[in-house]
Amino acid sequence: MLPNRSVRALLPRRSAAATADPSAGFGASLHPAVASSPGRDAAGAESSIVDSAVYRDGRRVASPATLAQALDCLPEPGSMAWIGMYRPTDAQLNAAAEQFGLHELAVEDAIVAHQRPKLERYGDTLFVVLRAARYVDESERVDFGEVHVFVGPTFVLTVRHSESPDLSAVRDRMESEPDLLRLGPEAVLYAILDAVVDGYAPVVAGLQNDIDEIETEVFSGDPRVSRRIYELSREVIEFQRAAKPLLTVLSGLSSGFAKYRTDDELQRYLRDVTDHATTVVEQVDSFRQLLGNILTVNATLVSQMQNEEMRNLSRASIEQNEEIKRISAWAAILFAPTLIGTVYGMNFDTMPELHWAAGYPMALLMMVMTCAGLYAIFRRRGWL
Question: Mind telling me which residue stretches traverse the membrane in this protein (predicted)?
């Protein structure tokens, strides 16, 4: 565990460090409003606090209304403050940072938000960024949240920028297990990590169900499936960005077990969280690969469907050409007797064939022979 020293004892040392090196402690130029009033009470921060409690030996002993009151309780042996803030303003977070002596770089990250999951240590204070995930059944999408956790020797300060994770459930769990809560701020950090990782399980199940539905749609020929594959791939990538860096955070905590004398029972709990997080990351990696394969199969099926459509169009065009050839052949055959009949139907006086005795039979014979000849030609060429 982290050494059990009070925050009051830490504040003077940070002030001295800030005087020697302006970049090393809180109160540098990044937060001039805080630096200009080091002794004021953080009254403005209380409006963003959703829960504030002081614990001693694993049990709640006070619910202070202000941060200053919470700090007043900490010199007692075995005491720990757990403050939860929800969407604080810059001024509110700066006020809380002044009270707890937080590093300005960590405070800046908490203000800006939209950080990747990470673990950083500033002196005796850990700064942890976690991204929670929640599967929404109604819209079949994944909502992502973000929580920043400051873990000091005798305090835990959580800053949430979204509804998830539900830290009230974490607090209820810890208060129902005083033996675990007695292990100190690192036990609270473990509980938050556990809640975030456990929250990934419904997301994994929801994504798996979506992928199963997409596989069915792909082979049923649904034209809208390509868009759904793309949207789901984006969610899986975003989920991967939330879950995969968590392994680095847990690895960083594990590497400090010996140095910071972390309790053996807490080490086992954290290793269990690491196992669950590893399983989630492996599943998400497989989802991304599977969606890539599904997208490839869908592209192949779409290409096959397009080729089939092209073949059908070509077949229809060929059949249409055959019909046109047959119609044209019969039109040519019928045109021949029409032409002969038209010529001899002009009734000019100087047409000797009109007065021949064999003129009529000869005209009929010419029509029959012309039609028969044209029929034979078209038949030989496959038009008929």
Answer: 327-346, 358-378
